[in-house]
Amino acid sequence: MNKHIITLSFLITSFVVFSQHKTIDQKVDELLSQMTLEEKVGQLNQYTGDWTATGPITINPNKQEEIKKGQIGSMLNILGTKYTRQYQELAMQSRLKIPLLFGQDVVHGYKTTFPIPLAEAASWDLEAMELSARIAAIEASASGIHWTFAPMVDISRDPRWGRVMEGAGEDTYLGSQIAYARVKGFQGEKLGNVNSVMATAKHFVAYGAAVGGRDYNSVDMSERMLWETYLPPFKATIDAGVATFMNSFNDLNGIPATGNAYLQREILKGKWNYSGFVVSDWGSIGEMVNHGYAENSKEAAFLALTAGSDMDMESSSYIKNLVVLVKENRVPVSLIDDAVRRILHKKFELGLFDDPYKFSNPAREKEALNNPEHTKAAREIAAKSIVLLKNENKILPLSKNIKTIAFIGPMVKPLRANHGFWAVELKEIDSTYIVSQWKGLVNKVGKNTKLLYAKGSDINSQNKEGFAEAVSIANQADVVIMSVGESWNMSGEAKSRSNIHLPGVQEELIKVIQATGKPLVVLINAGRPLVFDWTADHTPAILYTWWLGSESGNAIADVLFGDYNPSGKLPMTFPRNEGQIPIYYNYFNTGRPAQNETATNYVSAYIDLKNSPKFPFGYGLSYTTFQYSDLKLSSQKINSSEKIEVTVNITNTGKIFGEEVVQLYLRDKVGSVVRPVKELKDFQKVKLRAGETKTLNFTIDKEKLSFFNDKLEWVAEPGDFEVMIGASSADIRLRSDFELIK
Ligand code: NOJ
Questions:
Q1: Domain range holding 554?
Q2: What is the CA(202)–ligand 1 centre distance, in A?
Q3: Same domain for 559 and 434?
């Protein structure tokens, strides 16, 4: 063959190979160049399906026709292979056949439900949390879902806010670690795998600091607080590769987050160079009119797009106004292109242009939604999330040979109550699969144990008619277990409570049962820290069982009878009463700190209440005990390029296997701005056999010593520091000092 022919055929082959291997950016540009302005704006528009609403709804009856015209880029609340396929078929009738994205709130599981995120955070087990997100993704993606609106990474110090159930609690360090793990779990090895879903970091930002704990309320906070406490978990999701962000309903210092260019353009897409896209929260673009920030829906569309909100969930402001705004030269088409590019990029990454039905495979759906391994994991993770608050006289664990157990309370038998707020309502699939607490107990005890049941009271009413029956069965029993708390819809979105005491007459029911003198174990099921002062002071054994999901009953029974030794630690401070809120462990000392909690005159204290919480952040007991010893620092003096290696010995001093969450806190003793009395900077969950000792290693580096100074610079200032190793934020077992020098 002549040389020229060889060169020519080489060039042709290279060209063919090259054009087959276009980068996603090239493919996006090519598609974008074929799109009309109307089609571009269509990509920025998201609507809900008809049968599940997760916000105030105005059903759009024309959406099927609009999909065919390319006027909708994404849908939420369309579930299952059958329906996602039906909707995708409509998109395939549009001129450019751009596939729809299907989003869903897969927050704590899909068919298999896991503990609510706050409960899982109590496990302090990052692998477990990654696994539950992984399983949720496997199930949801097999059911046609491309995208979950999770994790919620909002820090909150206010248990009145109903959405604390959906986050990781009050602490920025713990919250950031969990945020990272959850994104990894949802997105799996890489987007584009058939069992990965896109994750969403939400709600950007400061939603958890709503004034008064009232959902959707305003937020006013300093820049330093924003950077130090509320932004880091979001940054952690970017480090984990999160595909999307959702903005929040609140205004931040007077500017709604949805229309906030500082947050979305300057920080997120600027400083953090984020390349994913931002979806608004439900209707939040239109709601800028109610905020008094936009005059009408057209101005709201203008403000949101220019501020960096790429997709409009449910408000129709974009689809109604953006074309006109471009034609009037108010919105440059380059801004529309940027938003569309970000969204198309994700559709290509997911592989939807190669196969729009890739995630809608009924055989895979059937298999994934009936996997016993998922159930097993749900049970294990639920057990790990339970926190043992009290265990006087070692009442727990219970013996499996007890003759008669009375199981009393409104949370014993209901199913949905344990599922948790964001359990997905699956059409045509049995979503009521859940092991009730009663069933869990029946499964656990042997034939020789007699079980008695009385409801005693409702969850939330004043009716005491059931008390007598409850007392009567308690009197017949050797041990009484009571299960009380909040129902699934008392914490969650729009479920703020001004009074976070145990609802209804449940605490009165506990009082009358306690008066029988029988050994008593109380289970408290809730989506938030509750106030139950009397119970905490007078009953001998309390397990905080949150809402634990499908395997609630089995997991609770595992812990009650010692098949799992509880290892959970509280991810939020439990107040003595609502007057202490906001309450958190990493407070400032003030100029007049109270000594020993005594409210002598002129100190920072209440005259009618202690400052300390009922149960502190990081607190939780075990059926065994742990001793902390031999704290050693590799050096007592470092400069900022050096590190300190910290070692500490932990011994299981009891008679059974157990796990301990060993927490490392730091205090910067004097700073150019006031620093908290302590801050969590590391932790390890360690497994120990009876009598076993392990040495744990931690590293302290400049990063862990840094904070934002008054110029918002991230600095580690020379001076003295204290390192504290504890079993909770209030149970510091070992301390040492060191100095940072220039
Ligand atoms: C409103 C909630 O704030 C958000 O978290 C959720 O993802 C959307 N509704 C969609 O359901």
A1: 382-580
A2: 9
A3: yes
